[in-house]
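User: Could you write out the 3D structure of this protein bound to 4-(dimethylamino)benzohydrazide? I've included everything you need below.
Assistant: Certainly. Input first, then the structure.
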Amino acid sequence: DTGSAAAVPINEVDIAYVTPVTVGTPPQTLMLDLDTGSSDLWVFSSLTPSSQVRGQEIYSPAKSSTSKLLSGHTWSIRYGDGSGSRGTVYTDNFTIGGLEVESQAVQTAQEVSSSFTQEQSLDGLVGLGFSTLNTVRPSSQLTFFDNARPKLDEEVFTADLKYHATGSYDFGFIDRAKYTGNITYTPVQQSPGYWTHSLSGYAVGSGAFQSTQIQGISDTGTTLLYLPTAIVTAYYRQVQGAQNSQYYGGYVFPCSSTLPTFTFGIEGARFTIPASYINYTRISPTSSTCYGGLQSSSGLGINIFGDVALKAAFVVFSGTNPPRIGFGTK
Ligand SMILES: CN(C)c1ccc(C(=O)NN)cc1
């Protein structure tokens, strides 16, 4: 089997992407954030306090003839940005892009933090990290990808995220029409459960490529690109008027600045992020100061190759043994 579904940016700066999924019988359609940086599938639900729901679609297990309570099981998750959610668990039929998993663990939120309440067009997350990270207790649950694996034509899923446009996620096949040339693969270290791999180096604008191993995680659920401070300062040194603002919590610059491109390496291959992707957003609607799409990872304890980087490539998440990740030019 295979599946293919849209990845729709939820606002005008691509803060996150959502994908239509169906849960239950008859199918309830929700728009979920497919997130390779976590491994919980959770949804706004009929159990979420109405004070915490602001426009989201909800899953109501009571309205599904195929829902089953996973008795005695709970979950609680905290994301890198401090947001989080917690609740109970049902199993039900779950479909993405025509690919169905029966009895998928669907984690129903009983509490969500304010930043989830504020994202009105995001109804939950589909974790596509390794199942070892799943937070359901007393027994952890499998991701959609792990459940779908046995029926997939190929043990892969791909991400084709786009700048200010709708892209796609495919399951079980690699669509040759979505990239040119060959996919360059690199090993993944799957413990503790992220898609952890290394970049082979970087270049700022037309500068020389710096060959240096940079380990981090490819995370479709994180908006920006977070790299070591030394690399980030070297980048913004090329930007007139750029500064690392404590007030705004990162590098800002005049929106009129000319930004350099940023190139990253995967083994011998090179992928260039256009300057426009790094001119991320105005700090407020009327401001002429802009916030960068490349920021320092020093506070995070890990480098994160988020959407700003991933949307510059066609990315293959290969669940083979051993797992690997591949990047193709598009
Ligand atoms: C508040 N929202 C929509 C979030 C979505 C995803 C994440 C995340 O760290 N994913 N890896 C955090 C927060």
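The mean pLDDT is 98.
User: Perfect, thank you.
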